[in-house]
Amino acid sequence: MKTLLLYDAFFSRGQSEKMNLEIAMILSADILTGVYTENTYIPEHIGFHGKIIEIYRSIPKNQNLFHTILLVWKFRKNHLIFQDYDTFILCDEWLSAASTLPEWKNTYYFAQNLPDYIEKISDEERGEIPYFFHEFYELKRWFLQKIFLSRIQKIKRIFTNTQENKAILRKLTGREDIFVFHPAVNTLEFHPVKQKQKYIFQEHNNITSVIENELDEYYLSVARLTSKKRVEEVVRAFSYLPLKNLVVLYREDDSQKDLCMSIARGHENIFFKKIIHDSEIPPMIANSVATISIAREDDFALSAIESMACGIPVIWVDEGWYSEVILPWKTGTLLKKEFNEYELIDAIRLMPRWRAEEMKEACIEKAREFSIENFAKELRKQI
Q1: What is each CA distance from 269 to 239, 243, 283, 315, in whole angstroms?
Q2: CATH number of the domain where residue 252 is located
Q3: Edge-to-edge, what's the strand order for the sheet holding 178-180?
Q4: Looking at residue 356, what DSSP letter applies?
Q5: Residues 255 and 343 occupy one common structural domain
Q6: 170 and 260 share a domain?
Q7: pLDDT, tens digit only, all 383 positions of the chain
Q8: How far apart (Å, rounded) are the C-alpha atoms in residues 53 and 55?
């Protein structure tokens, strides 16, 4: 049996990209994608040695419905590709390819990020749309849902990554054969350290030259520096906590890097560390007091499980799937969805090192549920 996994584009080192590479590796599958850029994971570092087929190298980073249609058209045009495979895993927007595949093929749909048109427009979104366009957006949503439902009928089995997504899909499709695969963590890579060490950070936002700062106690911001991740609010909170150190991880192309650094300027307890390679991240997590991420509307956050696998509790937001894996005051703390600055500051104050260390064993135990081994065993069972 030959398997092909379809994913729109590998643009970044995101959680979806990593998860899809791991799925392909477990199933010895090849990958078909629009583009595989140098900014994403190196396949060999993940353990993937299959074939990667690119069919649309000019796909833009923020592709729209037109580019999705063009992507599927290019797949249809290269119809000889699917003659070599009998099992297909369609991820996210690639559900559109279901109409091009013969009925005798084994076709699975993995909904990692649900399309925007699945649910009704929220009041917040409605407020951003001119009033005279409301009916148009509702009609567009209804039309795209109809197409979605017609394609889902050709799918043998539906997979998703959270119980919340499962409930939404079940309500929309009426199907009961929806299986949840939580994201998995490699516990050989993310694991507790026997003894905390002083960690040397070679970057600081207050001066232009590079210096070395040796920290034996710090909190770690693990989210990318983009507007959706709200890292600037974390930085602002630590500006009021001069006795607690914050280390902010970032990549060179993060859009809000300059904003976060400008907020931190003048506060000598806030440090920035540029990530060159992912292998730098596990030891920084394992030596921290706790990790922090207050991202808005994340479908899932593998970094929460990675943190717990290192025995490190998390400060997260009670939104999406987080409440499915984070046990309040056992493996971390959850801020309410709409929190204010003072509540974030209190959450940090209430997570001193001694309390974080008390949560260590519970964190490790919970993370074991999401091991690569368990994920692989269940995936092979379902496909």
Answers
A1: 8, 7, 20, 19
A2: 3.40.50.2000
A3: 52-54, 30-33, 3-7, 87-91, 106-111, 157-160, 178-180
A4: H
A5: yes
A6: no
A7: 699 999 988 887 777 888 899 999 999 999 998 888 887 888 888 888 899 988 877 777 766 667 777 777 777 676 667 788 999 999 988 888 887 887 888 999 999 888 777 765 554 555 556 665 667 777 878 888 888 888 898 899 999 988 888 998 999 999 999 999 888 888 888 999 887 777 666 565 554 445 566 788 999 999 989 888 899 999 999 999 999 999 999 988 888 999 999 999 888 899 998 888 888 899 999 999 999 988 876 666 688 999 999 999 999 988 766 777 888 899 999 998 889 999 999 999 999 999 999 999 999 999 998 999 999 999 999 98
A8: 7
* One-character DSSP codes across 193-254: -SS--PEEE---SSSSS---EEESS-EEE-S-SSGGGTHHHHHHHHTT-TTS-EEEEE-TT-
Q: Which of 225, 229, 245 has its CA nearest to residue 237?
A: 245
Please report, as a single letter, which amino acid is at residue 85.
Y
Residue type, 100: T
In DSSP terms, 90 is beta-bridged to: 6, 109
